[in-house]
């Protein structure tokens, strides 16, 4: 497996840092140390903290699209049932093995809501998820795939947030793929009729 390039390594490490230490813990020095890089490496590639946060948004979008590609390839040509199974499996992955990346994504999104200079990178990153959702919904016959994609992404984000950081997240058992499949079938059915 090839080594990630330096920018990817820094962005991935910054995302992990946000997930474990929050935005207060995100410093150039902390990322250098966690990535095992010489001091000053992170600031060489991302001069400001805002640039580092922007790199996180774009890397999160890139990895999310790669996740979707992987799951789509595994489940084959889309029909509502296979699409529900694929999305449920992806949500399960994001809620379990990839939990930290999702927590970082939510924290980074909140930062963009407070800091207008970060919104453009978050917006660019968010468009990638919506474009993929719209393409899926169009292939499933949605009459208005773009607006349906907005709903599907919002529902997906809401489910992820509720299960990872919501009021009962700490006391709920780990999600079950069959339960998620049932929920996703309802979400897809509503999105396809929107």
UniProtKB/TrEMBL annotation:
Keyword Zinc-finger among UniProt keywords: no
Keywords: DNA-binding
InterPro entries attached to this UniProt entry: Homeodomain-like_sf, HTH_TetR, TetR_C_31
DNA-binding residues (ranges): 27-46
UniProt feature coiled coil, ranges: none
UniProt keyword Lyase, yes or no: no
Molecular function terms from GO: DNA binding
Residue ranges of domain HTH tetR-type in the record: 4-64
Protein name per Swiss-Prot or TrEMBL: TetR family transcriptional regulator
Organism, scientific name: Streptomyces longwoodensis
């Amino acid at each position: 497996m090839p080594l990630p390039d330096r920018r990817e390594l820094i962005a991935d490490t910054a995302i992990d840092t946000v997930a474990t230490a929050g935005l207060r813990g995100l410093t150039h020095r902390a990322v250098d140390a966690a990535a095992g890089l010489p001091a000053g490496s992170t600031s060489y590639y991302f001069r400001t903290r805002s640039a580092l946060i922007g790199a996180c948004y774009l890397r999160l979008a890139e990895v999310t699209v790669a996740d979707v590609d992987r799951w789509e390839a595994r489940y084959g040509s889309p029909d509502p049932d296979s699409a529900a199974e694929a999305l449920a499996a992806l949500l399960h992955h994001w809620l379990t093995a990839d939990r930290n990346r999702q927590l970082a994504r939510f924290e980074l999104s909140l930062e963009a809501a407070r800091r207008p200079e970060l919104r453009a990178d978050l917006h660019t990153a968010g468009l990638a998820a919506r474009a993929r959702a719209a393409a899926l919904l169009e292939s499933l016959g949605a009459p208005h795939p773009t607006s349906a994609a907005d709903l599907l992404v919002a529902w997906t984000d809401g489910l992820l947030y509720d299960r990872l950081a919501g009021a009962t997240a700490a006391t709920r058992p780990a999600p079950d793929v069959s339960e998620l499949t049932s929920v996703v079938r309802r979400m897809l059915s509503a999105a396809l009729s929107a």
